[in-house]
Amino acid sequence: DTRRGAYEIDSVTGLPGMHAFFRSAIAHAKRNFKNGTFLDEVPVYFNITNFRKLNTSYGIARGDECLCTVAHILREHFPGRLIGRLAADNFAMLADSSDVQTRVSAACQSFADYIHNSGIELKAGIRFYDTAESGAAIFKHGFDQAKLACNTIKSDANHCWAAYTEDMGQSDAIRHYIREHFDEALQKGFLKVYYQPVIRTLTGKLSN
């Protein structure tokens, strides 16, 4: 059907859609694990920051042009690699682990040269593995972890990519726990509100 077709091939960029990409990525991981080359490829997640602003300011056609340009840039800097558009302004790929940082940096710079807008950047998260012990099982979470790494630098003008660390995972788990249990904590009175005193500068006294 139409929806399944959209997941197979992205109509804007011509890249594999989300479903087709992940199916191929998992197959790659299983094959590499069997061949003892699991650590040779790493999950990479890309995001265009403030993409919604681009669509709002310049129109959908300009946004689609930007997406196509990103697809072209990724193909150019990662020839022969599995690349997909997941949704909206999100892309993913399997990259060679040996030079992924250099290629990601070059791709992000190519995008900056194209867009000429410091508020709209191409950012990336990379998930390196130290061991192939769990093989394809841990690989299924690799792109989520790469996305988490990417999110940590969305507002960081000094970095275009970040590598996932266990600390990022722990911080995300804590945030998730707080969100999931906020209502419970509120109902049971575990939360207390403390007001910051406001002092009038003219009198030096506490304002009511």
Describe this structure in words.
The protein is α+β, with helices and mostly antiparallel strands. It is 50% helix and 13% strand. It contains 8 helices and 5 strands; from the N terminus they run H-H-E-H-H-E-E-H-E-H-H-E-H. A 5-stranded mixed beta sheet has the order 2-3-1-4-5, with helices on both faces. Helix 4 packs antiparallel against helix 5. It is globular, with a radius of gyration of 21 Å. It starts with a helix and ends in a 21-residue tail after the last helix. The N terminus is likely disordered.
Tags for this entry?
single chain; alpha+beta; 5-stranded mixed beta sheet; 50% helix; 13% strand
**Helix and strand succession?**
HHEHHEEHEHHEH
Percent strand equals 5-15%
- What's the number of helices? 8
Radius of gyration, Cα only, in angstroms? 21 Å
Structural class call reads: alpha+beta
Low-confidence stretches: 1-6
**Helicity level:** 40-55%
